[in-house]
């Protein structure tokens, strides 16, 4: 009996040792690093001459329980090649901005006393990029901290501007208005809400301190005081659904017409009629721009095309006839590519100088109409599907909703105009 007990005791001890050894020889605990932060962008949002001019945005971590804090670093572009994780982790506390996770994507305006990573005050006239360091919380993430990819570059400049947005409201039915926002996309105010009829475009005549508004359903272009928005008089009448209005290289006002044959017409800036410019019409025309040779390009919403005319208005044929679904605004960039906002698509599309489709440039849009280029090079796009105006970097990266959904009771943006140095 005693021998049986001894053998049982030895077997139990052996089993315990086996279990212990098995546990020790198992897989090691997984090390979790802090997550990589994406969507980092920096842009000029004010005119204070210091860090308050610089706004940095970034996407929150997918799992913020892994992050104890975010640290925003601003680097002069000349020193970007030597900035890395080790440099960020060794950075002086006064040379970054600490941001606490809050469950949302971040929009951070730096402080008056913010420094770059070298310890110098952030000032105008210097080109900067931003990084975000995510700090592992030490419990859920016990591994390393992680540094983001850099933002696009930005140079702080003392350029003051306001952003004006034409609101088509309920299209054939009001409310219609022209809204004014400050250079951060905030503080909306109603600039014009009388003598409108489905407003389409906004054009400031700075020399006379006047602003022109094209009105679709009344066939009028109305003239208003550019400071107060007060109605002055009709600039032109009898048009067939005027949409875009733009001053050409000849100093004349070009007007697109949605209805009828869609002939492009021209006016002197005093409102006197000049001529029917184009030899053929473009139905439902709603976007125009010129190339460096003086050729005029006009988009057709229902035709899903862009047509080209020479500097005399003679037809040069269809320039783009594919990859479009309801084009609205069009414009040439500095490379000579034509960018086309596709209202019924989900992007602004890029075409080369021969009209060949290259790629979707600005993505994630719905009912896009109205384009404005900020002094920083960032691009504003009216997004009717969300009653907002979206901001993209000049390279095409989405930054944020510059004008949030419904701000100023915005319903359907269809023109976005930047007016600077007022």
What can you tell me about this protein's structure?
It is built from two helices and 32 strands. The protein has helices at 2-24, 85-89, and strands spanning 41-44, 54-58, 67-76, 97-99, 106-109, 127-136, 146-147, 154-155, 161-167, 177-181, 189-192, 199-205, 210-215, 220-225, 231-236, 242-247, 253-257, 265-267, 273-276, 285-290, 296-300, 305-309, 315-320, 327-332, 338-342, 347-351, 357-363, 368-373, 379-383, 388-392, 398-403, 413-420. Strands 3, 4, 6, 7 and 8 form a five-stranded antiparallel beta sheet that branches. The radius of gyration is 29 Å and the shape is elongated.
Q: Poorly predicted ranges (pLDDT <50, ≥5 residues)?
A: 4-25
Structural class determined from secondary elements: mainly beta
Estimate the helix proportion, in percent: under 10%
| Number of separate helices | 2
Give the averaged pLDDT, no decimals.
92
Number of strands: 32
Distance between the termini: 105 Å
Report strand %. Answer: 35-45%
Mass-distribution shape: elongated
Rg, rounded, reads 29 Å
User: Describe the biggest sheet?
Assistant: 5 strands, antiparallel
